[in-house]
Each structure stands twice: as C-alpha cells, then as structure tokens.
Write a structure and sequence with these properties.
This protein is α+β, with helices and mostly antiparallel strands. Helices cover 44% and strands 12% of the residues.
C-alpha cells in the first residue's frame, strides 16, 4: 500500500520538481496532469494474494487486451459513481457510436477520403515503377480514380491528361473512361515499314524496346521492319520509312 501511495505522489509531481536522487524505478513513471493522482493519501484496498494472482497472471499472461472494447471500461467507470458525483465532475461516458455521430460529418469523413486519395496515389507510383522496370513505358496508361463520388473536396481528385474520375458503384464517369481508353489506344499510332541501314543497327534496339514489331526482313540496304510506334519514335525514324512495293 505504501508503494502505491509513493507511486501516486510521483505521478502527481512534475519532473523538474522531483527529487534528483529518486529511485530509478519510480523516476521512470511520467508526470500525469489533471489531478488524477493528487490525493496520495487516498485509501487503497489491501492487496491479497488472490487479487495479485488475478491482476498479474489471469489478466496479464496470455491475455490479449486488444480484443476488449474500451467501451467496457467507460461503462464500468461511470457505474462506480453516484449520479451527483457524475454531474458535478462532468463524468459522463460517451459511446464510440455517439462520438462518431458528431465527428464523422465534422471532419473525419473528409479526412478518410483524403487518406484514401493519398493511398491511391502511392499505389499509382508503385505501378509506374514496376512498368518502368519492365521496360513497358510505351504502353498507353490511364490514371483512373474510383469512388470519386465519396470525395467532398474536388481539389483532392487528380486531374489532367489521361486522368479519369469515376464511381463504379454509381456508374458515373464510365462513358468518359471508355472514351479515354479508345483515345489512348489509338493516340499517335503509326503503322510503318522502315529500312534501317546496317550502319545504324543500334536503332533496332530502340525499336524493339519502344515499338510493336510485326515482322523483320533483310535486304541489301539494311534491316526492314514492319512496326507500330508512337509520335515521338516516329519522328525519330521517319527518314527511314519506305513504301511497300
């Protein structure tokens, strides 16, 4: 009991006001404001061996407290006080459900939407990294932001070229998504036949990396390839284009 009272006293004493020669075990406990431990002379029940066993063994060893709802502790604490004491000290337990009724519409819903957007952006960055590692940057890409209807702040939704905001559940933005897909798949595509001189053979590595190659042949002037490529690569290779026949 004396040890518990000594602990209460230390919990109610600020660090700068404590004895510098305080035992290390007691000094490890931080100061707790709010007056919870201000009465170190409070009557403390005598701990019996049975109580010690319940606290140190039954309620500690091999027991996962994370499975216990905090609601239980709030209800138990409130039930130990008489109504007058609760009123005078404002000691009324508020359930998790009632707390969410207040804070969700105030800020928590919007905050969760923002977290979801950030998570999607991180996932998109990871996908782009994998595509780069695979050497598939030439494949058309679209950034599709689902659940856009749940975001109350439109500024949080990414926008720009090749970005589409949709709601799969409410079937919103699907026409825009299909149109963007059709545009991306056909955008800047050139089906051409090129004759790459043997002296410029290094260009074949670029072609195989950044274009779709349908056939390869060889003649006296160089390597003839039938490819489909984007605007950028076509601009670099246009001078090597040859006509059929």
């Amino acid at each position: 009991m004396e040890g518990t009272q000594a602990l209460f006293y230390r919990l109610d004493t600020k660090a700068e006001e404590r004895d510098p020669y305080l035992e290390e075990d007691l000094a490890a406990f931080p100061y707790v404001n709010g007056g919870l431990f201000e009465n170190e002379n409070i009557e403390i029940p005598q701990f019996t061996e049975e109580i010690r066993q319940l606290i140190l063994t039954n309620a500690s060893e091999d027991f996962d407290w994370s499975e216990i709802s905090p609601t239980i502790f709030g209800a138990v604490f409130e039930s130990t006080l008489n109504p007058e004491t609760r009123r005078s000290g404002g000691m009324h337990y508020t359930s998790i459900e009632n707390i969410h009724k207040v804070i969700d519409p105030l800020f928590l819903d919007a905050l969760q939407d923002e977290f979801a957007q950030i998570k999607e952006l991180k996932q998109a960055a990871t996908v782009e990294k994998v595509i780069s590692q695979l050497g598939a940057q030439q494949i058309p890409q679209l950034l599709v932001c689902n659940k856009a209807d749940l975001c109350e702040n439109p500024d949080l939704i990414p926008s720009g070229e090749n970005v589409v905001a949709i709601s799969a559940k409410r079937k919103r933005g699907l026409d825009e998504l299909l149109a963007a897909m059709e545009k991306a798949l056909g955008k800047g595509k050139h089906r051409v036949k090129l004759c790459i001189p043997y002296a410029d053979g290094y260009l074949l590595d670029v072609i195989h990396k950044e274009a779709a190659v349908f056939s390869t042949d060889y003649d006296a002037d160089g390597t003839v390839v039938d490819i489909e490529c984007d605007d950028k690569l076509y601009g670099q290779l246009k001078e090597y284009e040859v006509q059929d026949g």
